Amino acid sequence: MCIFSYKEKEIFFSFQLIVCAFSFIGMPGMTAYFGFYQVCSPKKGEHVYISAASGAVGQLVGQFAKLMGCYVVGSAGSKEKVDLLKNKFGFDEAFNYKEEPDLNAALGRYFPEGIDIYFENVGGKMLDAVLPNMRLRGRIAVCGMISQYNLDKPEGVFNLMTVVYKRVRIEGFVVTDYYDQYPKFLDFVLPCIREGKIEYVEDISEGLENGPAALVGLFSGQNVGKKLVVVARE
Ligand SMILES: NC(=O)c1ccc[n+]([C@@H]2O[C@H](COP(=O)([O-])OP(=O)(O)OC[C@H]3O[C@@H](n4cnc5c(N)ncnc54)[C@H](OP(=O)(O)O)[C@@H]3O)[C@@H](O)[C@H]2O)c1
């Protein structure tokens, strides 16, 4: 039984399309795609770690890495998010970084043979813990450092010497550099969506008045997936 009129259906589907355009077929999707495939230079079977993994970008990076045949572990800040990573997005393992008193040891548990690729969303203590766990010729794609954005003084990183003796490549990137390659991204991602190979979770707040709280919530992990604020549905 269809409960929508034709007009309502039209509004509903154009709303869905706008939501998609802001999420997996938009900026976060492109960030995940170019950050992973171009900056990380991944190979089948490699060991991939993603921080802030349930976020708009991280959830896609993990799924792209699984499609490539990698072993994938993500971290996030709640049990709900950890369950999502393992049960919806198909990560091999996931852990709640807030419950790990020693991040270095936690990473050693999940990556006894080391990390080939670290997709960096968090920075600070997390980056410091990752460095000693990197494998020879590992790659770190620096997408963001959300833990540092609101600090008066950024935290230091102390384990940088690892970069030398393990020949690790650390490379930052900004998604706008890849906007001219949007058709290439769509050629990849649209079939994935059509064939049900990619899952995506959004977190929608209704009403412009909830915009400030939605923004602030990103920094305490209140969002699950891409945070969107609906100003109007028509
Ligand atoms: N380079 C680029 O072109 C580009 C483009 C888009 C985004 N970015 C960056 O990529 C990163 C991820 O963005 P996104 O849109 O995927 O994220 P998002 O959906 O906005 O989610 C942010 C998540 O970060 C985690 N977080 C917040 N504060 C944290 C802290 N102090 N320590 C650890 N985790 C924290 C929270 O999850 P938990 O509950 O897991 O803590 C939060 O839900 C951000 O750093 C963003 O600035 C870069």
Question: Layout of SSEs?
Answer:
Blueprint: H1 6-22, H2 27-39, E1 47-50, H3 58-67, E2 71-76, H4 79-87, E3 93-96, H5 103-110, E4 115-120, H6 125-130, E5 134-142, H7 161-165, E6 169-172, H8 182-194, E7 202-206, H9 211-217, E8 226-230
Parallel strand pairs: 1-2, 1-4, 2-3, 4-5, 5-6, 7-8
The structure holds NADP nicotinamide-adenine-dinucleotide phosphate (NAP).
List keywords for this structure.
8 strands, binds NADP nicotinamide-adenine-dinucleotide phosphate, six-stranded parallel β-sheet, 18% strand, alpha/beta, globular, Rossmann fold, 234 residues
Characterization of the model:
The chain contains nine helices and eight strands. The protein starts with 5 loop residues before the first helix and ends with a strand. With 234 residues, it is α/β, with parallel strands linked by helices. Helix 2 packs across helix 3. The chain is 38% helix and 18% strand. The protein has a domain of 151 residues: 3-Layer(aba) Sandwich (Rossmann fold). The N terminus is likely disordered. The structure holds NADP nicotinamide-adenine-dinucleotide phosphate. NADP nicotinamide-adenine-dinucleotide phosphate (NAP) binds next to helix 2 and strand 8.
Unique bound compounds: NADP nicotinamide-adenine-dinucleotide phosphate
Oligomer: single chain
Topology pattern, helix = H, strand = E: HHEHEHEHEHEHEHEHE
Give the neighbour order of strands across the main sheet: 3-2-1-4-5-6
Mean pLDDT over the residues: 91
Gross morphology? globular
Protein name: Alcohol dehydrogenase-like C-terminal domain-containing protein
Pfam families: ADH_zinc_N
Domain Alcohol dehydrogenase-like C-terminal: 56-189
GO molecular function: 2-alkenal reductase [NAD(P)H] activity
